[in-house]
Amino acid sequence: MQQRIRLNMDEVKRLFEAISGYEIVVHTPYIMVLKSQKGTEVTLSSNGRMLIKRVSDEKEARTIAQDVLQVALKAQQLP
Prior knowledge:
2 helices; alpha+beta; four-stranded antiparallel β-sheet
């Protein structure tokens, strides 16, 4: 069963600014685009959906998605 989430994108931005490894390319109340040092691009929406570009395979994409989600979930808004 999937769980619905809602992220506070201002808080997500603050969390990613505090860690190294990702540059914030775009930030709005609804979406954020991150770029890794390796050139991978992650588009994260406030509902937790992600689009991951510039990866070599699905395994790498899953690993990156887990890393990003682990940080982003710290900014989850309660219903």
